[in-house]
Design brief:
By secondary structure, the chain is mainly alpha-helical. It has helices at 2-41, 47-53, 58-81, 83-86, 88-107, 116-147, 152-181, 184-196, 198-204, 217-221, 224-255, 259-286, 291-309, 321-339, 342-352, 359-437. Helix 1 packs antiparallel against helix 6 (116-147), helix 6 (116-147) crosses helix 16 and helix 12 packs parallel to helix 14. The longest helix is centred in the last third of the chain and has 79 residues, at 359-437.
Length: 445
């Protein structure tokens, strides 16, 4: 009896230790999401004007923004593949150290000479910053999944609150600091905050060891279900960033809104997204069978919202700010519904296809997830700006919505076919079991 009680006490102590470790991991990853998104979004209100004064054209400014996403695509794949060799904790801490340092350096670029030197320095700093960001995010996804193997969607949904807050607070905070103190202070303040949090990451992020696996990103991507999930993520991230270069121009031109009111419209998508993400994540973990339907319904609903944002001219519905605002609120919920279940679905599919459970596989999945998302953040504003220029916002948004509708329908067809194959396989296995149970010789009367 004493021995049993001793074992129970050890189990409870271990459970409490793990619970504390999980809380520390959650704090670390939440702070990474929040600070990274603020540093990412702070450029919007004032950097284009400053860069233009330093001799950068609109095209160059767009490329400075775009190179961040492209570097993220490349290094998410590289660092995800070699997360075991580099070490998840070192990648996490080192990535945030790089990101914080580059944020400060970016604030000092106004002292660089105008013209090519300034432009080249912008590209260099943004590239190194993107390397740090990709390392921090790839390792944070892997560490988070390793720490919460049974609640991946729930914790990812909870962390999206801090992602949304960072994206929402970044532009106004940057604008206020810029107006009060000039160009350098916003970057220096945020960069120093990130650097001061590095010791926290060194203490809170656990060390996980594992052995490398032979599988590559190609082995992961060529699984049909994962390929379709990547298309879902590509569509989702491109749809969200499609609004960056197009929405404000449409609202100001169509409804003659002030810049501050346009900022409130952006808030209309971020707030529902942040509120719904934890709830949808909990449902995805509690009822795993609902994940597929959340992805399908979320994709279709996202497509419908984009079609009615303008709305599309072929519906002959008059544009109104109320319809636009309602669609933005629904869009915040639908994008959360689509994006939150994708990561656990990819991970489950990888395990079903004989990928070993461990840090190596988590690194591959995290790297692929981050790369596809970053590719979408490059395609979204690039394609959105082009379509908006050629076809105007109403048709451009309808095309973006049509892409989401097609991908949502493709996912629906895939899941129906998958369910049909699983039922056939189950019936076949049942029949085989019945045949094995039949006697080889008939019983004599």
């Amino acid at each position: 009896m004493l021995s049993y009680c001793h074992v129970q006490a050890e189990v409870q102590t271990e459970s409490r230790r793990m619970s504390r470790e999980q809380i520390l991991v959650l704090i670390a990853t939440a702070s990474v999401n929040f600070s990274s998104m603020i540093c990412y979004s702070i450029l919007g209100p004032f950097f284009p004007g400053e860069a233009e004064q330093k001799g950068a054209s609109d095209t160059i400014i767009g490329m400075i923004f775009g190179c961040y996403a492209l570097v993220n695509v490349l290094f998410s794949l590289i660092l995800g593949k070699y997360i075991v060799q580099v070490g998840a904790k070192f990648m996490f801490v080192g990535g945030m150290f790089l990101s914080g340092g580059c944020t400060i350096l970016f604030g000092l670029l106004d002292r660089a000479p105008d013209g090519p030197i300034y432009i080249a320095m912008c590209f260099v700093v943004r590239t190194v910053d993107a390397v740090g960001f990709s390392g921090a995010m790839t390792s944070s996804f892997a560490v988070l999944t390793k720490s919460f193997p049974q609640n991946v969607a729930t914790v990812m949904g909870t962390l999206e609150i801090f992602t949304g807050l960072g994206l929402v607070l970044g532009p106004p905070l940057g604008g206020i600091l810029y107006e009060k103190f000039g160009y350098e202070i916003p970057f220096i303040v945020l960069g120093c905050v990130v650097l001061l949090m590095v010791p926290l990451y060194m203490y809170t992020v656990p060390t996980y060891d594992d052995l490398p696996i032979r599988e590559s990103f190609w082995d992961l991507f060529r699984i049909p279900k994962i390929s379709l999930m990547c298309l879902v993520m590509l569509s989702l991230s491109s749809a969200l960033t499609f609004l960056d270069p197009t929405m404000s121009l449409f609202l100001i031109e169509k409804f003659h809104l002030s810049t501050s009111f346009v900022g409130l419209i952006f808030f209309a998508i971020a707030l529902p997204y942040s509120i719904s993400a934890p709830l949808l994540g909990y449902l995805a973990d509690k009822f795993p069978a609902t994940r597929k339907w959340m992805i399908i319904f979320g994709s279709l609903l996202t497509g419908i919202c984009y079609v009615f944002l303008g709305p599309a001219p072929f519906f002959h519905i008059k544009s109104s700010i109320w319809l636009f605002s309602i669609m933005m609120v629904v869009l915040g919920i639908s994008t959360s519904m689509t994006g939150i279940p994708v990561f656990p679905e990819i991970l489950e599919s990888a395990y079903k296809n004989n990928f070993e459970e461990g840090l190596s596989t988590l690194g591959l999945v995290s790297g692929l997830f981050g790369a596809v998302w970053s590719l979408g953040t490059f395609i979204g504003p690039t394609l959105g700006g082009y379509l908006n220029e050629k076809l105007h916002f109403e048709y451009a948004a309808a095309i973006q919505g049509g892409i989401a509708l097609v991908i949502g329908a493709a996912m629906g067809i895939f899941y129906i076919a998958e369910n049909y194959q699983e039922k056939r396989s189950s019936v076949r296995n049942t029949n085989s079991a019945d045949e094995e149970q039949e006697p080889l010789l008939p019983n004599r009367v």
